[in-house]
Structure formats: C-alpha cells, structure tokens
Write the structure tokens for this entry.
Amino acid sequence: MAELAGLVQRLEVAVGRLEAVAGGGGSSAGGGPEVVSAYVEAYDDFISGPVAQYLVISGQIGGDVQKHADMMKKAFTCQRQFLVTACNSQKPTDAALSSLLAPVSDIIQQVQSFREQNRSSPLFNHLSAISESVPALGWVAMAPKPGPYVKEMQDAAMFYTNRVLKDYKEKDKKHVDWVKAYLAIWTELQAYIKKHHTTGLVWSKTGPVASASSAAVRPAGGAPPPPPGPPPPPMDFSQSSTGGDSSADSRNLLFASINKGANITKGLKHVSDDEKTHKNPALKTQGGVVRSGPKPFTSPRPAPAAAPPARTLPPMLELDGKKWRVENQEGAQGLVIDDTELKQVVYAYKCNNSTLQVKGKLNSITIDNCKKFGLVFDDVVGIVEVINCRDVKIQVMGKVPTISINKTDGCHVYLSTDSLACEIISAKSSEMNVLVPGAGGEYTEIPVPEQFKTVWDGKKLVTTATEIAG
C-alpha cells in the first residue's frame, strides 16, 4: 500500500512537469510556458521522495496527523511555485518578496493554529513536532546560511519526536516510521540547499524582476496582465511650503538667526508664574492651556482599533482516559488529585496563581504555559516536565527519576530525602534553583548553572559550567 501511494505521488509530479511543458501547468513571468531550472527539478525529486513518504504514512495514521499532512502538502506545493518564479525572474524588492512568500506563510500559520486548537488531541506530540519545525520553509528568505536555519528548525522538532518514539516504540511501529520519514524531509532539504542554494536562494539574472503577479497561475493561452500605469511625477523640492522662498533663502535666514549669538533669545516671551502648569496644577484640568505660539506639529494617526475581547476558556479538572487534565485555572488554591493509578499522567495547561497537589504514584506530570504555579506530588515513575512556564515551584514528597525544565523563567525545585538522586535536565531556562533538605528539616538553596564555557581540547568540545553561573 505504501509503495502504491508513493508511486501515485511520483506520477502526479511527472504529470505536472508534462503539463508545464505543454503550457497548461502555469506560465512564466513572460506569459509563455513554465520553464524550470535544474534546481526546480531537484525539488520535484525531493517532493516525490521524502515528502511523499511522509504523506503516505500520515495517511495511514489518519486523524489529526493526516489533516496536518494535507496542509504540509499545500505548503510544499506553494514553495515549488515560488521556486519556479525565482528561476525565471530577477530578485524583487522586499515588499514584492513578502507578497510572493505570502501563500507559504499563510499555510505555516494554519499549521501552527491547528496545533493550538487541538491541544487535547491524542496525537498532540505529532502536531507539535510539525508546528515547531514548519518555519523551516522560510529558508528561501534566509541568507547567507539557509541550510543551518533548516537544521535549527529540525532540532526544534526533536523534543516532540522523541516523545512520539517514547510513546509508540513498543506499541505501534507505524508512528516510529512516521518520525523517521518526517525528520528525513528536513535532512534531505538541507542536502538540497547545500547543493543548489548554499548561500541563499538563486534568482535568475536575465528574466524580468519578479512581482506579486509573477507567481499567479493563468489559464493556458491567456493574455498576460496589463502593465502598471506610469509612476507619478517627482515632487518639486525647490519651492518651500509657503510657495515664495527658495531653499537657499531659507538657509540664509537660518544662519542669520544663528549668528545673533546671545541675542537670539531676545524675541522669546516671558512666562509668568501664574501661567506655569507646575506651579498651577489647576491649569492641567482646565479645558486647555493657552499657548502664545503656533500649535506643535503632530502627525495624523488613525484611531487605534479596538482590541478583540480575550477569549476565556472554562477551568477544567477531569480524567480523560488515562490523562488528568488541569486547564485554565485562575487563582485556584488547593486543587487536589487523589484517585491516581500508576498508568495515569497529569497535564496542567495555562494555570495561573494556582496550586495543585497530586497524591499517590503515577506515570508522569507535565506543566505547560503556567505562571505562578505550585505543584506538590508524592511519586512519579517517569518524568516531570516544565515547559514555557514562569515562576513555578515544585515539591517532591517521594521519588522522581527525572525533572525536565525547558523555556522557563523562574523554577524552584524542592527535593525530598528520597529524591536526591533525581536528574534535572534544563534548556533555554533561567532563574532555576534546587532546594536540598538538610539536618533539622532546613533547605539549602543551590542555583542551577545558566552560563557555560566550551573549549576544544584537540579531539572534541568540552563544556563546563562557569564559576559565575547561576
């Protein structure tokens, strides 16, 4: 089945090329049949290879993963059309370039919005892996290192693809193949960029300058759009705004005023104490302050648009299958989960100024997008994760093997005597402190290093925490 779907994808690419040659697959900037360069053909091979494999496996998984894959397919198709425009046109202005990139940019936003709208999806980690890395399609606007940019976006997906592997490694090999196929897309794209666009997208040097209409697909045989009208005549700066004095006369008057020296202030009006607002605060509350000179210049500004009302979601604390969902809690002190089982997990999302106590032993706990949030738990056999949070406090009453802190500012971890062997893994975080119990129940606060030193020892890079870290 997978081989058949892959063959269909390759046939679609081949048919697209034949239609282009026949003039039915699009038009160049000059209105003729589509002309593609070697790097567009190489991109077609890229789509019919790793991209097609990813689409096939996504279709086998189905659900939200397939919907996401359909969006990604549109994104790669739009980027292919952009490359056709680039190989037939010279590089445009920044404004025109933004217009040309708009189709891909819009789909990237759709992909990321779909993930945010489906946080309760059982395939949320799949959606997150794609959403974190899809900005890699913006490599066409990156210079001089588009390849490393794609690598950086690929690394951003690794956090969630590792979760998928962890969840499905022993359950369903199809999801493991999905991870390999998806990561292969960005690996192959880096190889493609290194070969054809090492320092940035290669534009044509002989064609017309690209415009927003260059990428538009016109029906076969259709006439090209009419050329734009002539530009407006240049402004005449030789006359001043009053219409009578030349710029040279204005400069002479300015220099004559400057040459007065100390006498330049003689023409200023003296302001009495009863006209000074700092000595008469009542003037500020009157209908207006009388000014002796002309009103200061203010550029006209449009009235600010009214901000849309913030969407408030109802708070939630419920067991959904094996997942305890604690979401949208505001100022909720004393939340408790006490009916737990070893196979269950807790997911806390957008909980602010709240505290949660989890009793018993369970699999894992995740805290996501929370502020001023407190967590107290007994035992976790897997991992406690803190992601995109601010000012979080965690207290371990029993045991936990691993605590992961990512993209978080302000995190205090209180360890118990039984959890001193816990591994704490942090990335892109600050203001982290671990509090270790001592004699008499007193805690010793130890900062987690945030600053590191890396040196080359002749064989490998060696990284150590600096003395002023933390």
In short: Residues 63-88 form the longest helix (26 residues). The chain has nine helices and 16 strands.
